[in-house]
Write a structure and sequence with these properties.
Layout (H helix, E strand, L loop, with lengths): L5 E6 L7 H11 L3 E6 L9 H8 L17 H8 L2 E7 L1 H8 L6 H8 L4 E5 L3 H5 L1 H12 L3 E2 L3 E4 L5 E5 L3 H12 L9 E6 L4 E2 L5 E2 L6 H12 L3 E6 L11 E4 L3 H11 L5 E4 L6 E3 L7 E4 L2 E4 L1 E3 L3 H7 L6 E8 L3 H11 L4 E6 L11 E2 L2 E3 L4 E3 L3 E2 H16 L1
Parallel strand pairs: 1-2, 1-3, 3-4, 4-5, 8-11, 8-13, 11-12, 13-18, 18-19
Antiparallel strand pairs: 6-7, 9-10, 14-17, 15-16, 19-21, 20-23, 21-22
Helix pairs in contact: 1-2, 1-8, 3-5, 4-7, 9-13
């Protein structure tokens, strides 16, 4: 993901400094070359040796330190950097960065960098909410830097409120989105459906399927990280929504129909990866359940055909992609669906193939268009998502 990338981490004086050790380790494991720059105050919270051990690089603190290979260090690092994240960023250092003060290695290198910059404030709630701090953050944003809004919670000082630095996993995702993916989908609006729907039988029971939403969520994450503006319409699932995505939670097929049709006209690309329940109870109320000698029978009716509606009401230039899950005659059935629904592309998989379908972390798919078929080997759903988006971009370019 980050192989060949150079990441600069600026650590300032905050109790949250210890979290950056976990971030540095994760970045190294992802293949990045990591350099840590610390303010003198930061060394009171975590020892530089920790970062040197984790990254294999000297932790830089003193601008005039002579104990390294000869070069103008802050300039050479700035030229090499792909992204510079300051985390935790104290109110003091935020003020310096906003007004161009460069009086130590961290701030001097920051001023010399032309790469993307990310700031993650961490401080007492009152300090964070101080109008001066807020104005300084707005200045940084004005100059094109990304500011990660701190989380709210119990702080080290004993207060509860905004000012808590996000966890290392969240900071990692910001870096990954910034430099880990090409931005070849920038400017595109993408709508993705994911997960199952639930059709209520009564207040306790419902009709659904085994969809976990993993494939749709992987596509949404990949599209967002490649620069698209992503809307994810999702049924109830047990996985965490991807970051940087607008999430629209729904319950029933009718909910999904309304959410999708309402947003569809504005979308450049629509990918229906959800496994919508095909049927729902035909009538509302307790009388829809018929019991005979302890057995239950339910009158059913088909839910609305979301993909069919999209095919009939597509806007000029809009790209439509559906999914087809088959247990037999996969290619024939999928091609028939492609034509019947008026789609540009359909992603077909056979539920009987090992590693494909619901609940797995892998998938085995064939990407089908009117004039082509591309069978992919078994790969992770994240890899399938990236390949699918690449195919869509190739098709639309």
């Amino acid at each position: 993901m980050l192989k060949g990338k150079t990441i600069l981490l600026g650590v300032t004086g905050s109790i949250a400094a210890y979290k950056i050790a976990y971030l540095a380790s994760a970045l190294v494991k992802a293949g990045a070359k990591v350099h840590v720059l610390m303010t003198q105050n930061a060394t009171n919270f975590i020892n530089p040796i920790t970062f040197e051990t984790l990254t294999g690089n000297k932790c830089l603190i003193d601008t005039f330190d002579r104990n390294f290979q000869f070069s103008v260090e802050h300039v050479s690092l700035a030229k090499e950097a792909d992204v510079f994240m300051v985390a935790p960023a104290s109110a003091n250092v935020i003020g310096k960065l906003a007004h161009g003060i460069a009086d130590d290695m961290l701030t001097t290198t920051f001023m010399a960098c032309t790469c993307p910059k990310i700031i993650s404030p961490a401080m007492n709630t009152r300090m964070y909410e101080n109008p001066i701090t807020q104005d300084n953050l707005k200045i940084l944003e004005h100059y094109g830097m990304e500011v990660i809004r701190p989380a709210s919670g119990y702080l080290a000082c004993g207060d509860t409120g905004a000012g808590k630095m996000p966890e290392p996993e969240t900071l990692f995702e910001y870096i990954l989105r910034t430099v880990g993916y090409p931005k070849d989908m920038a400017g595109k609006k993408v709508l993705i459906t994911a997960g199952p729907t639930r059709e209520a039988i009564d207040p306790v029971r419902y009709i659904t399927n085994h969809s976990t939403g993993k494939m749709g969520y992987a596509i949404a994450k990949a599209a967002a990280y490649r620069g698209a503006e992503v809307t994810l319409v999702t049924g109830p699932v047990a996985i965490k929504p991807p970051m940087f995505v607008k999430v629209v939670p729904i319950e029933s097929a009718e909910d999904m129909f309304q959410a999708v049709t309402g947003a569809a006209p504005e979308q450049d690309i629509i990918i229906k990866a959800a496994a919508v329940a095909d049927y729902r109870p035909a009538v509302v109320g307790q009388d829809k359940i018929k019991k005979t000698d302890g057995d239950m029978s339910i009158a059913l009716e088909r839910t609305k055909d979301i993909l069919g509606w999209l095919g009939q009401h597509r806007t000029p230039g809009q790209f439509l992609c559906g999914f087809s899950m088959e247990t037999r005659d996969m290619l024939e059935n999928s091609r028939a669906k492609l034509a019947r629904k008026n789609l540009d592309m359909i992603v077909a998989n056979n539920l009987k193939v090992e590693g494909a379908g619901f609940g797995t972390d892998t998938n085995v798919v064939t990407i089908i268009t009117k004039d082509s078929e591309k069978e992919l080997p078994k790969m992770s759903k994240e890899q399938v998502a990236d390949e699918l988006l690449t195919q869509i971009l190739d098709f639309t370019s």
